[in-house]
Design brief:
Layout: H1 6-18, H2 23-40, H3 55-64, H4 67-72
Helix pairs in contact: 2-3
Length: about 70
């Protein structure tokens, strides 16, 4: 989830999951990804660390900031 190639890996897996789906189901899949990122961005705070510096928050922010996902959803 936090490895250097996480964006490429996520996009490859998302494409693999979305390819056999109808356009409506693809939109639902992307909406699920975006919703999950939004709802979980603050679930893993770490003592002594600003929330925005945690790996999970950055993962969620990366997903939410990925313009291509918003155009698919």
């Amino acid at each position: 989830m936090y490895e250097d190639d996480h964006i490429q890996t996520r996009n490859r897996l998302l494409k693999r999951a979305a390819d056999p789906l109808t356009p409506a189901r693809r939109r639902a899949l992307v909406a699920y990804l975006l919703t999950g990122a939004l709802l979980s961005c603050d679930l893993y705070p770490q003592d002594g660390m600003d929330l925005r510096d945690t790996g999970h928050y950055q993962w969620a922010a990366d997903i939410l900031g990925h313009a291509e996902y918003w155009s698919l959803g």
